Amino acid sequence: MFASLSDRLTATFRSLRGKGRLTEDDINTTVAEIRRALLEADVALPVVREFTAAVRERALSAEVSAALNPGQQIVKIVNAELVEILGGQARDLHFAKRPPTVILLAGLQGAGKTTLAGKLGKWLRDQGHTPLLVASDLQRPNAVTQLQVVGERAGVPVWAPEPGNGVGDPVEVARSGLAHARDKQYSVVVVDTAGRLGVDAELMAQAANIRDAVDPDEILFVLDAMIGQDAVTTAQAFADGVGFTGVVLSKLDGDARGGAALSVAKVTGQPVLFASTGEKLTDFERFHADRMASRILDMGDILTLIEQAERTFDAEQAERMAAKVTGEEDFTLQDFLDQMQQLKKMGSMKKMLGMLPGMGQMREALENFDERDIDRVEAIVHSMTPAERTNPKILNGSRRSRIARGSGTTVAEVNSLMERFDAAKTMMRQMARSGGKGVPGMGAL
Ligand code: GDP
């Protein structure tokens, strides 16, 4: 997601590299480039205007920081403004003082509401809540079954209309679902509603009726990030028709331009609370404006990476990985291998690698990434002696050909692995220099 926006912006910043000081002309040219990049990515025009005006003003009056070169200063300013349009600090879901908390999902058909209900249900359950999903989407023939399937997968019960009892009345299903939740002491109720292919009055009225029947604590507007320019008008229509308290961006894993989704928080004044990044239940995360901005600027997303690592491995492993990233510990070939194996365990390799700083430039390579590559790396590292693993400098020609023979690979493959290891090590060092937080990847500017 946002790949082309990210590429355009980083190219703009690269062109500032090596400049000692930014003239007003430099700033104007840069701002014009940023404007073009945002418009091309479908960011809504009013948002682009406000964004570029703010960047220009801040760049012109930039408090000169001795620590940053001009390119880095612009990145810092653009980053801050991106965080701002993405809705600033993340807030938590509002939970009712007296349970059950009611969360209503609204959005167009196909936006990803039903899928989200399952993801949200699982997420809530993992946090210790006892959620109930309510199937109030009676428009689509399969919607109820679909919710039952995701509910089962997520391990979360589903309240669905009894055949012959209330069928056809989504408001009644929502109301009885809530009564059931109160009765059985569920702590959160997630109500899935019907969507249409386009915004229409009947759909809005139905969603509003369900809203009035269950008095939700949160209304989450689910927005397909791939719908382009329509995102803003759709969001506006839902804001006027039903109202919402938060946005969920779905299909952020797609490769569409996605900029319209970036405009939604700004245009509607409601924060993006969650991001959906795939069809699996686990392809779901809290949305953090600062992390998304840093991903767009190709500064990586170390925090999300570490959080996902924490979810996948035990705390000790995650801590070790964090220690490597922050430079407290040396990064060895064994770590490189561990890291690759861990990434493999973590699921979608491309997605994870995309979160590492500086990876934007390697996007093409990533597209062609072959997970079997990890098996080759494994074979090569396993063919090394412990001494070779801790001190790869001793790998001369004869050692390399022995390793190639032992691992069923070629010397060229061994050489290429060593080059990649050196690159990873350099990257780790750069990240360590920036404190493991802040602005990794900016060392490349
Ligand atoms: P609803 O009509 O709003 O309930 O939408 P669904 O939940 O049925 O989703 C519509 C389609 O989008 C389904 O095929 C989902 O598997 C798919 N989908 C939902 N969320 C995501 C996502 O985050 N990424 C991708 N790639 N597909 C998604």
What does this entry look like structurally?
Helix content is 54%, strand content 9%. It has 445 residues and is an alpha/beta fold. The protein has three domains: 3-85, SRP54, nucleotide-binding domain (Four Helix Bundle (Hemerythrin (Met), subunit A)), CATH 1.20.120; 101-289, P-loop containing nucleotide triphosphate hydrolases (Rossmann fold); 302-444, Signal recognition particle, SRP54 subunit, M-domain (434 Repressor (Amino-terminal Domain)). Strands 3-2-4-1-5-6-7-8 form an eight-stranded mixed β-sheet, sandwiched between helices. Helix 1 runs antiparallel to helix 2 and helix 4 packs across helix 11. Mean pLDDT is 82; it is low at 435-445. Residues 107, 109-115, 195, 250-251, 253, 276-279, 283 line the site of guanosine-5'-diphosphate.
Spell out the key features of this protein:
445 residues, Rossmann fold, eight-stranded mixed sheet, alpha/beta, 9% strand, disordered C terminus, Four Helix Bundle (Hemerythrin (Met), subunit A), 434 Repressor (Amino-terminal Domain), 8 strands, 20 helices, globular, binds guanosine-5'-diphosphate
